[in-house]
């Protein structure tokens, strides 16, 4: 099924170090011409290799993004990197509110909001990650949690219809566990997200991706769904062979 644009995003987390990231980027740059322009590929490397990875991949039409930002531009904030600094280093995108940030580093909905605003103010495209825990799902709270996360991050923003905002539905229980969310259920959650965002009446161009144990074997199940604009891939994006297979699968679907 041909869609307008397919988003295939790679969250490398802290899986690849400086050398590994650069070797991967060089290898990838040699095969990227096999992938059509309708497939929007963005890589999120760790902060230290981001600049050189961006130089290699920028030349072949692949974007780079930050995994996390701090909301203030400059100052005495030891260890932090601001949205402005990432922008200056060549980032067009940034993840925000990834579940590992929320759950391992105790990031709150309020902090996610501040980061999202900082990303927008630097004219970068945010990839807002939302998702429920296993317990929240079991107790029937998944839909409500998603609504709370979306509302706290987005309500009241004044943007314009052209401004791109990407939302990644990433159920916490599916991330890095090998237990991907069933594609029909992911589709239902995507429709829910679209409905909530519509109710908020924010003028923006929203895209919704699925993330959580996506691999070369299951990626097409998500990409063929109408409400799913693409995928955010973690573990499988940091291994060249599986990443390449994911892109080839997307390419095949794009050609159909
Ligand atoms: P995973 O991670 O593909 O390894 O489950 C996805 C993500 O965290 O974005």
UniProtKB/TrEMBL annotation:
<dbReference type="GO" id="GO:0006096">
    <property type="term" value="P:glycolytic process"/>
</dbReference>
<feature type="binding site">
    <location>
        <begin position="11"/>
        <end position="13"/>
    </location>
    <ligand>
        <name>substrate</name>
    </ligand>
</feature>
<comment type="pathway">
    <text>Carbohydrate biosynthesis; gluconeogenesis.</text>
</comment>
<keyword id="KW-0312">Gluconeogenesis</keyword>
<dbReference type="GO" id="GO:0005829">
    <property type="term" value="C:cytosol"/>
</dbReference>
<dbReference type="GO" id="GO:0046166">
    <property type="term" value="P:glyceraldehyde-3-phosphate biosynthetic process"/>
</dbReference>
<feature type="active site" description="Electrophile">
    <location>
        <position position="98"/>
    </location>
</feature>
<comment type="pathway">
    <text>Carbohydrate degradation; glycolysis; D-glyceraldehyde 3-phosphate from glycerone phosphate: step 1/1.</text>
</comment>
<feature type="binding site">
    <location>
        <position position="213"/>
    </location>
    <ligand>
        <name>substrate</name>
    </ligand>
</feature>
<dbReference type="GO" id="GO:0004807">
    <property type="term" value="F:triose-phosphate isomerase activity"/>
</dbReference>
<dbReference type="InterPro" id="IPR022896">
    <property type="entry name" value="TrioseP_Isoase_bac/euk"/>
</dbReference>
<dbReference type="Pfam" id="PF00121">
    <property type="entry name" value="TIM"/>
</dbReference>
<feature type="binding site">
    <location>
        <begin position="234"/>
        <end position="235"/>
    </location>
    <ligand>
        <name>substrate</name>
    </ligand>
</feature>
<feature type="active site" description="Proton acceptor">
    <location>
        <position position="170"/>
    </location>
</feature>
<dbReference type="GO" id="GO:0006094">
    <property type="term" value="P:gluconeogenesis"/>
</dbReference>
<dbReference type="InterPro" id="IPR000652">
    <property type="entry name" value="Triosephosphate_isomerase"/>
</dbReference>
<comment type="similarity">
    <text>Belongs to the triosephosphate isomerase family.</text>
</comment>
<feature type="binding site">
    <location>
        <position position="176"/>
    </location>
    <ligand>
        <name>substrate</name>
    </ligand>
</feature>
<dbReference type="InterPro" id="IPR013785">
    <property type="entry name" value="Aldolase_TIM"/>
</dbReference>
<keyword id="KW-0413">Isomerase</keyword>
<keyword id="KW-0324">Glycolysis</keyword>
<comment type="function">
    <text>Involved in the gluconeogenesis. Catalyzes stereospecifically the conversion of dihydroxyacetone phosphate (DHAP) to D-glyceraldehyde-3-phosphate (G3P).</text>
</comment>
<protein>
    <recommendedName>
        <fullName>Triosephosphate isomerase</fullName>
        <ecNumber>5.3.1.1</ecNumber>
    </recommendedName>
</protein>
<comment type="subunit">
    <text>Homodimer.</text>
</comment>
<dbReference type="InterPro" id="IPR035990">
    <property type="entry name" value="TIM_sf"/>
</dbReference>
<keyword id="KW-0963">Cytoplasm</keyword>
<dbReference type="GO" id="GO:0019563">
    <property type="term" value="P:glycerol catabolic process"/>
</dbReference>
<dbReference type="InterPro" id="IPR020861">
    <property type="entry name" value="Triosephosphate_isomerase_AS"/>
</dbReference>
């Amino acid at each position: 099924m041909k869609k307008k644009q397919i988003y295939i995003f790679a969250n490398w987390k802290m899986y690849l170090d400086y050398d590994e990231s650069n070797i991967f980027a060089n290898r990838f740059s040699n095969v990227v011409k096999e992938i059509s322009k309708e497939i929007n590929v963005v890589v999120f490397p760790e902060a230290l290799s981001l600049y050189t990875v961006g130089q290699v991949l920028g030349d072949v039409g692949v974007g780079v993004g930050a995994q996390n930002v701090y909301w203030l531009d400059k100052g005495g904030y030891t260890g932090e990197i601001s949205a402005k600094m990432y922008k200056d280093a060549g980032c067009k995108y940034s993840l925000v509110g990834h579940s590992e940030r929320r759950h391992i580093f105790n990031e709150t909905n309020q902090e996610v909001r501040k980061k999202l605003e900082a990303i927008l103010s630097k004219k970068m495209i945010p990839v807002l990650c939302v998702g429920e825990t296993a317990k929240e799902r079991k107790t029937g709270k998944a839909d409500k949690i998603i609504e709370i996360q979306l509302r706290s991050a987005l309500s009241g923003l004044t943007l314009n219809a052209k401004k791109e905002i990407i939302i990644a539905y990433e159920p916490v229980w599916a991330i890095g566990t090998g237990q991907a969310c069933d594609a029909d259920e992911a589709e239902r959650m995507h429709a829910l997200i679209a409905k909530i965002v519509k109710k908020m009446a924010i003028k923006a161009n929203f895209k919704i991706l699925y993330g959580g144990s996506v691999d070369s074997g299951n990626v097409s199940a998500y990409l063929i769904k109408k409400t799913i604009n693409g995928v955010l891939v973690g573990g499988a994006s940091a291994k060249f062979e599986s990443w390449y297979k994911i892109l080839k699968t997307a390419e095949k679907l794009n050609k159909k």
